[in-house]
Amino acid sequence: MSEHNVPAWHPWFVCVVVFFLFLGLVTSFKTPEITAFSALMVLWNVGIISAKQATSGFTNSGVLSVGVLFVVIQAVERSQIATKMAKHVFGMNTGVRYGLLRLCSFCFIISGFLNNTPVVALLTPITRDWARARGFSPSTFLIPLSYSTIMGGLLTTVGTSTNLVVSGLAEDVGLPPFGFFDIGWVGLPVGIVGVAYLVIFGPLLLPKSTGLFRYMKNRGSELITEVQVTSGFRYKNQPVGLMLGMLGFHQDVLVKIRRPKTYKKGLGAGND
Fold it and tell me: How many Cβ atoms are within 10 Å of 44's Cβ, its own excluded?
């Protein structure tokens, strides 16, 4: 269909499809590939795009490069190269800022040659465990991990899938594709400044939450838990003291017993 003879309802229909596409992605109604492919099929079937346009993305060199890159990522994940390198890079005798510098530098470099999402997925549990082992707050390191990985994606064309797709689109319209390190002329200085900012200001601005599990471990004696006894409880109709002993608890852990019609403060072997 000529682009100068487009029916008036086409743009509105595309807007509606894009809205439902976004809604489907946000709500995770189906997997992203099914949601996106369904939207493509709708536009194709109503004649807004041709069969050639609908399938052109599958022959785009950028899209194909992204697919090949995921094969490389799987090899890296299974070989655990990144995991072994990270454990040596972080170190166990570092302070907060020096640890941030080593973390951000490692993520910045490695994400220039691997896709961002798998890098973050690989290093997040390693970073969290390392921070806890050193007595640091994991929340101080996880945001710099993500941001330094994003900035590292600007080092090379394969650093992020967006670079590959844009390079493929440029090639489709007759422009020369990106060289491997072309965008690094911009990405490298931006990354150096960004990493320096994260190292200097990160410990001052980021939260120092130790997480729910550490809080419960440190202050477990101050927490109160409510337990509901069901009709199938195996120690039903047994004295409270006996029941607590059989469960391995001291009687002092029981504060109150709440019944449907009465409210008793509880303790003593004779309570039930």
Answer: 15
